[in-house]
Amino acid sequence: MVAEPSRRAPRVAYLPAALWSVLLAVLLLAPGSRLPRAPSLALLDKVAHAALFAVETVLVARAATAAGAARPLLAAAAVAGVYALVLELAQNWVPGRVLEAGDVVAGLAGVALAAVVLAARERRARGGGGG
């Protein structure tokens, strides 16, 4: 039996977000021995965390919108923010990795930045924003 298009579309819409989430887990939970060691990369690491979770937020927001969520942006920010925290906490159990407050802040900053940009785009699309 073939699923109805209205039911199938939201499931397909979740695929990019799900694949990105798996990629994040692989990247952020890799053992520390497999990571490059360079103090000069500290800032780049924080920028990367912010960018990774900004993308997560955008993909989850798209999926939530396709699924007809009442507040897709709020849902996306909550899901991506919690995921950033969970992955960082999980690093405590990965050899050579530790929880870093800076990484948590960077991940949450990426979530917030994406949410602000998406909200501004949504406002502008509805004709309610200046700019």
What does this structure look like?
This protein has 131 residues and is mainly α. It contains four helices and no strands. Helix 2 crosses helix 3 (72-90) and helix 3 packs antiparallel against helix 4. It starts with a helix and ends in a 6-residue tail after the last helix. The relative contact order is 0.15.
List the helices and strands and how they pair.
Layout: H1 5-28, H2 42-66, H3 72-90, H4 101-125
Helix pairs in contact: 1-2, 2-3, 2-4, 3-4
> What is the string of helix and strand elements?
HHHH
How many strands in all? Answer: 0
**Percent in helix:** over 70%
Q: Round the mean pLDDT to the nearest integer and report it.
A: 86
Poorly predicted parts:
1-5
Oligomer designation = single chain
Radius of gyration: 17 Å
- The count of helical stretches stands at 4
Relative strand content: under 5%
Basic shape:
globular
Can you summarize the main beta sheet? none
The helix-and-strand class reads mainly alpha
Report, as a whole number of angstroms, the end-to-end distance. Answer: 49 Å
